[in-house]
Amino acid sequence: MTLTLYTNPMSRGRIARWMLEEVGAPYDTVMLGYADTMKAPDYLAVNPMGKVPAIVHDGRVVTENAAICAYLADAFPDAGLSPPVAERADYYRWMFFAAGPVEQAVVNRSLGVQPTQQQERMVGYGTFDRVVEVLEATIARREWIAGDRFSAADVVFGSQIIWGTQFDWLPRRDAFTAYAGRLTARAAHGRAAALDDAAVQGNQATTV
Fold first, then answer.
1. One domain, residues 59 and 118
2. Cβ neighbours of residue 149 closer than 8 Å, sequence gap 6 or more
3. Is residue 28 a contact partner of residue 80, using CB atoms and an 8 Å limit?
4. From the first residue on, what is the mean pLDDT of each consecutive set of 10 residues in the chain (208 residues)?
5. What's the CA gap between 24 and 110, in Å, rounded?
6. What global pTM score does this model have?
7. Domain assignment of residue 149, given as a range
8. What's the CATH number where 13 sits?
9. Rounded distance between C-alpha atoms, residue 45 and residue 39, angstroms
10. H helices of the chain, where?
């Protein structure tokens, strides 16, 4: 079995790294630079978008964090990161809500993009305030997003909450703070963050 993560420590690749640490399977890491190796022919053969993350598992390529997380949960069922098929409604719903409407809303907000009332019909999230209300109401009434135990959906959904509050892209609501605390207390999250933080420091050291 071969499993390789293509990433950059200052990217959404941190989400895929966290999921890999939750899975617990051995994997190799290829660090890429935004201006060079991420746009080089070798990597474009893996992901023509020239974006990270991507994983290659026994020759099979998966890109996009939600897809990577869902794939890894299925590929390594012993990790227990996906519910039984009959119980996956919330799992899929909130995982892809986070990957689609939430990310769009947060990115637009951080870029200063404010859809007009007419444009709200065109964007998948409607309004930023509505997204925040749904996020808060959903996580306030449950410990984990897809049921009574942690799952791959929490990696995707939770990453939006952790980053959103960390960089003030989302308001600091009590429900968000409590949920982020449960997530960052996980051993796998700590290992993943330490690996990427060390890579950031190493990169800074080589460029000074």
1. no
2. 80
3. no
4. 97 98 98 97 98 98 98 98 96 98 94 92 94 97 96 98 94 96 98 97 59
5. 34
6. 0.94
7. 85-187
8. 3.40.30.10
9. 10
10. 13-23, 41-44, 65-75, 89-97, 103-111, 128-140, 152-166, 174-184, 187-207
